[in-house]
Amino acid sequence: MNSEDISKIKELLSVPQKIVIIPHKNPDGDAIGSTLGLWHYLKNNGQDATVISPNDAPKFLKWMPGSADILNFEAENSQAKKAITEATLIFTLDFNHLGRVGQMHSFLEEATATFIMIDHHQEPSDYALVTYSDVTMSSTCEMVYNFIAYLDDTSKITPEIANCLYTGIMTDTGSFKFSSTTSKTHKIVAELIDKGAENTRIHNLVYDTNSPSRLHLLGCALKNMVILEEFNTAYITLSQDELDTYKYQKGDTEGFVNYGLTLNGIRFAVIFIENKEEGIIKISFRSEGDFSVNEFARAYFHGGGHNNAAGGKSDLSLKETADYFVNLLPKHLKELTK
Ligand SMILES: [Mn+2]
C-alpha cells in the first residue's frame, strides 16, 4: 500500500465504523484465515465487525478462532443482508471481482459502504476506495499481516490473529513450497509463531482430517489419472457416480490436483470434477515453472487465478471436456516442454 492509501485507512479506522468482511464463495484456508484474522484485529480495536461468507466454510477450518461467529449468507440470509445494507465499510478479501461472491453479488453492488480490497489475484476490478492488490504475495493472509504492519500495529497481533494468518499462509503456499513463498513470507511466519501461532497443531487440524471414504476417493482419483508424457501433463477425472460411491463431502477433493505435479517431469496437472447439480465440470489447474495456468484457464475454461494455480469450468460432459482439453495441448507443446 502506498502512503496515501495508508493514511486513508488510518482515517477511516479512526472513527467507529460498521464493518463487514467478506471472503470469496467456497472459502479456503486463506479466505477464512484472512477474514477472521482481520476481524479479530478490528474488533480488538473497538470496531463493530462481522464476517459474512457467501456460503459455508469447509469442516477442516471450523476450529479457527471466530469461525462460529461467521454469518453464512446462504443460511442466515436476512441477517447477512441487513449487515451489508447497514455497513459503512466493507473489506473484500482474497478475491478481486464482485462476481466471486455468488448470490451476494447484487447486494454488494447496491451497498453504500466504502470498499477496501486486500487480494493477491490477477487483474483486480475497480470497485474499492483502497485497492491493496499484489500478485507477488503468497497469500491474502500475508497481506493482512502487512496491512496491520502498515498501521504500526504488529504489537496488537494476538495468538488468535496469529493462528488465523498462519493457517492461510500455510494453505495458500502448499505448506511453504510454492514459488510465491519468499524469505519475507518465512519472516512473517516466524513472527506469527512468536506471537502464538501453534504451527504443529494447525497442520494437524487442517491436513490430518481424512475420513476413510475420502482416502478411497483419492485412490479412485489416482487410478483415473491420465499421464501424457509428451506434454508433461497429467489429468484426473472424477464423475458424479464416483463421488457418490465414495460419499463425497464438500472439500474432499481439495488438493487432489496437486498429485499430478509430484510425478517426475510433470509440469501441468489438472482435475476435472463432474457436478451434476450445477450441470458443469469444475476444473482445477496447477503448473510448475513458467506455464501460466491463469492464462490457460481464462482462454479456454471461463476461469483464471494465479500463474501456477487456477480454476475454471466447462458446460460439456466430463468426457467431452477431457477430450477438448487434450486437443488443446498440442497448441502449447512448446511452453509445456521447454
Ligand atoms: Mn489466497
TrEMBL record:
Q: Which GO terms describe its molecular function?
A: nucleic acid binding
InterPro entries cross-referenced by the UniProt entry: DDH_dom (IPR001667), DHH_sf (IPR038763), DHHA1_dom (IPR003156), Oligoribo/pAp-PDE_c-di-AMP_PDE (IPR051319)
Q: Which residues form the DDH domain?
A: 18-169
Q: Where is the DHHA1 domain?
A: 249-319
- What's the domain of life for this entry? Bacteria
> What Pfam families has UniProt attached to this entry?
DHH, DHHA1
**What is the protein name for this chain?**
Phosphoesterase RecJ domain protein
Q: What is the lineage of its organism?
A: Bacteria, Pseudomonadati, Bacteroidota, Flavobacteriia, Flavobacteriales
